[in-house]
Design a protein that fits this description.
The strands form 3 sheets. Strands 1, 2, 3, 4 and 5 form a 5-stranded antiparallel sheet that branches. A 5-stranded mixed sheet has the order 6-12-11-7-8, with no helix packed on it. The N terminus is likely disordered. It is built from no helices and 12 strands. Strand 9 and strand 10 form a beta hairpin.
Length: 154
């Protein structure tokens, strides 16, 4: 997971449970990549002014990791009704395309927050296997692609 930030002439400090810290002085843009999951505290300082500390739990994943389910159930029960990344990449560019088993495109959102609700042209898509392709650029700037299969069950 990447922590990205923009501070101008400030000091960023990240403290871990183990007492280690990452300090960056006078930076304009900084990407910090913690390698160990755990509880962290974060603050920034500019001269004598210091922000309140923010404490958070952090899971650490590979930079380009993105998780997508392999089954979803768009049946209106409010559970698993939309196919979308479970843990999206921190991405500046993201595309998701879903194809039916014959290779015809059935869904392509224009927004990373949108997922597939299991409809094609306003009609319920049949229970079937579908193929997805996800491409994205991570916060660190690398291009990635992930393809896989998903099952729609009603």
């Amino acid at each position: 997971m990447w922590l990205c930030g923009l501070w101008i002439g400030a000091r960023l400090v990240i403290l871990s449970e183990q007492g280690d810290s990452t300090i960056s002085e006078n930076f304009v843009f900084e990407v910090v990549t913690p390698e160990v999951a755990g509880r962290y505290r974060l603050y920034y300082q500019n001269g004598n002014c210091k922000s309140p500390e923010v404490e958070f739990l952090l899971d650490v994943f590979e930079e380009d990791a993105i998780d997508l389910p392999n089954v979803f159930t768009p049946n209106g029960d409010g559970v698993n009704d939309v196919f979308r990344p479970l843990r999206p990449a921190n991405s500046s560019e993201f595309t998701l395309v879903i194809f039916n088993r014959w290779g015809h495109k059935v869904f392509e959102p224009t927004n990373i927050e949108l997922g597939w609700d299991g409809t094609i042209n306003g009609q319920d898509a049949p229970d079937a296997n579908y193929i997805y392709s996800v491409t994205y650029k991570s916060c660190g700037g690398s291009n990635s692609e992930k393809r896989g299969a998903l099952k729609l069950l009603r």
